[in-house]
């Protein structure tokens, strides 16, 4: 898969979704706007949801690569980096959230955040229930932040997430 083409598809889909429901958007419209071939779409995706799923997965993988290159990250600095990473796609992600795709976007983030917790990027308990609770809560925080048009800066969000995670560690 070509990351640049996938990003163009993701952003074109969000742009078209501003004025149309997903089921009203044709493959031709999407591929023309993204400047990719229909063949590329059909070789790599089955549904529009696949485009969004793949993009969120790549976003989280990118974040994982960033964090593994850095040393001595705290919960707060990790969260700041995460929200800075999300900021690049905030407008497109918000379009999907505002058009009813909240549940499965939260689910995508929850799965990705669970992987980040397993990789030790998000520090905390090894308990599977703590991981599920934390990933679910963080995915909901992301949704609320995006739907509020990222009013709080990544720095403020980093502080908030750090406080939440530290408080939850003491509860377990």
Explain briefly what this protein structure is.
The protein is an all-alpha fold. It is built from nine helices and no strands.
Structure write-up:
The chain is mainly α. The chain is built from nine helices and no strands. Helix 7 (102-118) packs across helix 8. The radius of gyration is 17 Å and the shape is elongated. The protein starts with a helix and ends with a helix. The protein has helices at 3-17, 27-34, 38-44, 48-69, 75-87, 90-98, 102-118, 128-147, 154-171. The protein has one domain.
Keywords:
mainly alpha, 0% strand, elongated, 172 residues
Sketch the major β-sheet. none
The low-confidence runs, each spanning 5 or more residues with pLDDT under 50, are none
What is the overall pLDDT average?
89
Sheet/helix structural class: mainly alpha
Give the number of domains.
Answer: 1
Distance between the termini: 41 Å
Question: SSE string, helix = H, strand = E?
Answer: HHHHHHHHH
Cα-atom Rg, whole angstroms?
A: 17 Å
Secondary structure: number of strands: 0
How much helix is in the residues? over 70%
Strand content: under 5%
Q: Specify the number of helices.
A: 9
Shape: elongated
List the helices and strands and how they pair.
Elements lengths: L2 H15 L9 H8 L3 H7 L3 H22 L5 H13 L2 H9 L3 H17 L9 H20 L6 H18 L1
